[in-house]
Amino acid sequence: MTLLIGGTGKTGRRVADRLTEQGHDVRVASRHSDTRFDWDDESTWPAALDGQRAAYITFYPDLGLPGAADKVGALADLAVKSGVEHLVLLSGRGEPLAQAAEQRVKDSGAGWTIVTCSWFAQNFSEDFLAGAVASGDIRLPAGDVSEPFVDAEDIADVVAAALADPARHDKKHYELTGPRALTFAEVATELSRATGRHIRYTAIDHEEYEDVLREAGLPVELGDMFRGILDGRNARPADGVRQALGRPARDFADYATRAAAEGQLT
Ligand SMILES: NC(=O)c1ccc[n+]([C@@H]2O[C@H](COP(=O)([O-])OP(=O)(O)OC[C@H]3O[C@@H](n4cnc5c(N)ncnc54)[C@H](OP(=O)(O)O)[C@@H]3O)[C@@H](O)[C@H]2O)c1
């Protein structure tokens, strides 16, 4: 049995689909799943971990926020006590607090695979930027920084491979990105091409972005994190998809075409 924490999220549900198709038993856990798991309620953790051989850990809202590393570390330690042999952690590039969480998983005593990812392409269709795309104006404090957006389909391919064959991916730390970095203005161009609508990017400052986060009901601390990671540190593409799977990563243009065809960019 494989536990998928956050198994209904952007990456978790894709991992669940892949493992189920391959005939593996999965236990999807989150606040609203049949197996209830809440990062803010440790009493829900033991039953979720019981009887599991491996676990995929996605933290919510973001591994790069204060307090995340302690929670993930406590979960990893409990997982080992519960007999879980392999942990796969979803992490974010260039985030010091996320690196602390990665270390806690490496130190837990379980086998581990870490997937440290760039921004997900699916943020524009399935997450906090979907409303901006629908409005035709993506407002972010990203200046002209470029980002090698990774496709959640590639993340799920790597995570599912690691969970299905832990020995092969044990103690591997994969940096997952797309094959090329795009500025947010270039993203807007790709999304416009794919949808046939005019979608623009507007660079705003960090103070204005705090208001955007508040209006969207998102943690204002995300603004501090973006202030750190949207400085060009993550612009270089990495080859984690090829290392893990032996094939190139999917391009953002392919994501945009697919998401538009599936009606996810409206
Ligand atoms: N988006 C990016 O660009 C990006 C880049 C790098 C890394 N990451 C990392 O990705 C992680 C998020 O993974 P994701 O994007 O696959 O998920 P997601 O789409 O954000 O979905 C969140 C999942 O977590 C569950 N959840 C929400 N609150 C929870 C809580 N208090 N306790 C337990 N489960 C909870 C949700 O289900 P319920 O509502 O049923 O609880 C859902 O299954 C974050 O840690 C972030 O650091 C994101």
| Spans where pLDDT lies below 50 across 5 or more residues | none
Q: Profile the largest sheet.
A: 7 strands, parallel
| Computed CA radius of gyration, to the nearest angstrom | 18 Å
**Annotation, overall tally of beta strands:** 11
Structural class: alpha/beta
What helical percentage do the residues reach?
Answer: 40-55%
User: What series of H and E elements makes up the topology?
Assistant: EHEEHEHEHEHHEEHHEEHEHHHH
Shape assignment: globular
Ligands:
NADP nicotinamide-adenine-dinucleotide phosphate
Give the N-terminus to C-terminus distance in angstroms: 37 Å
CATH architecture label name: 3-Layer(aba) Sandwich
**Strands across the major sheet, in which order?**
3-2-1-4-5-6-9
Mean pLDDT: 97
Structural overview:
- With 266 residues, the chain is of the alpha/beta class.
- It has a single domain, classed as NAD(P)-binding Rossmann-like Domain (Rossmann fold).
- 43% of the residues lie in helices and 17% in strands.
- It has 13 helices and eleven strands.
- Strands 3-2-1-4-5-6-9 form a seven-stranded parallel sheet, with helices on both faces.
- The structure holds NADP nicotinamide-adenine-dinucleotide phosphate.
- NADP nicotinamide-adenine-dinucleotide phosphate (NAP) binds at residues 6, 8-12, 30-33, 37-40, 58-60, 62-64, 90, 92, 117, 119-120, 123, 127.
